[in-house]
Amino acid sequence: MENNLARVLVVDDEVNQRTALASVIRRWGYEVDTAQNGAEALVKLREFDADIVVTDLQMPELDGKGLLEELQKLPTPPQAIVLTAFGNLETALETVHQLGAFWYLEKPVQTPALQVILDRALDKQRLSGHAVRLERQLASHGVLGDLIGESKAMQEIFHVLQQVSPTKATVLITGESGTGKEVVARAIHQLSPRRSGPFFAINCAAMPEALIESELFGHEKGAFTGAFERRAGCFELSRGGTLLLDEIGDMPIGTQAKLLRVLEDRRVRRLGSAKETELDVRVLASTNKSLPDAISKGTFREDLFFRINVFEVHLPPLRERRQDIPRLANELIADLNRKHACRVTDMSPEVANLLLRYDWPGNVRELRNVMERAVILAGEGTITTALLPRGFAGRQEAEPQPRVPASGGVMLEPGMTIDEAERALIEMTLRHTGSNRTRAAELLAISPKTLFNKLKEYGGGAE
Fold first, then answer.
1. The whole model's pTM is what?
2. Domains defined for the chain, CATH in brackets
3. DSSP, res 271
4. pLDDT tens digit string along 251-290?
5. Distance CA 33, CA 8 (A)
6. Separation of alpha carbons 344 and 351, rounded Å
7. 3-state DSSP call for residue 220?
């Protein structure tokens, strides 16, 4: 395999070992540099932009584990291959798991195995670089992860997220309910070096004080009534990943003090335990409240606010970025088609106008609910105004009118929605075919799958 542009940094305090490895790797077409310990490696990396770092674990000044910890702070860290002597296998596996090393090899290194691992690590590094470039391109086209928006406000948010996500900074995400604060938190996690680690979100408004402390910090067996077994909290479960403290503005004031201590000391202690555990987790927080107002009312600690508000990302309400609504609606249609096995193609101009006119007090969450209802009711084809909720954006419910029979005995009435008339027609056709669904689908000119979905929606329909 030819790797003319690929660079490898070999780090080992044993001069013969690193010289021999460097010589072999050069013969495989890589550009190679060497360092005698982690500290020197970090200096070399300022000028030598390595794709892969091959490092020993046991070294003076800064060992392999410390080096990997520093590499993870880089915006695009190189892939790391750990070399370990006999007896350090457990440490090597721990390093691979916790610090994101690509793989490990035992000494003495078998060169065929090293060549295979190097080639695979290079493939992964190039894919990672491609992913970063793709994320930047998508952001310029109005998409970043699950975030969608071409408005100036959203483009500014995309730019901020690309800057802050690779760092370890605590981010406070603010905005009204339904604006997508958890989606932003997940985007930060996916754009960070911790993307391969866990992502946990805990709703601070949904639990009483005693329970939220157990969820956050964990507890030992017998720590309180009902604690029948030992349990790790979200801080421990998020090790190597990201923890979102959702609706932190509603966290009980007593818990806030304990959280502040954990964030400052970077250690957590389970309820009922005397042992503290070091934290390796990035903390994000979100709220739909004004925390400065909560501070003035005495319901939120000012010192905790300063601790979590290292970097703020504010999400504007949907009514302030109306130009994003058509794009959002179409993306939701595509997503909901997959979810519900529907084949909706588009929405009518009248529907698009109603969506733009509406103020969306529930923001993106409300838009998704409206579109989900419409996609399910439509099944296929075009979403029309009849499939929107009654009263939506000024759509008025018709006055009750006498029911009149249509041909074939289907009862129709003015103001009857299309889905109501459709259900009546489906039920009549099923009665006509003796509940033969295949024949009924043929007469209705729809697929059997669409008919099945309709009947499922009606709770079984007419048999």
1. 0.58
2. 7-133 (3.40.50.2300), 141-316 (3.40.50.300), 318-397 (1.10.8.60), 398-463 (1.10.10.60)
3. B
4. 999 899 999 999 998 888 877 777 888 888 999 999 999 9
5. 7
6. 14
7. coil
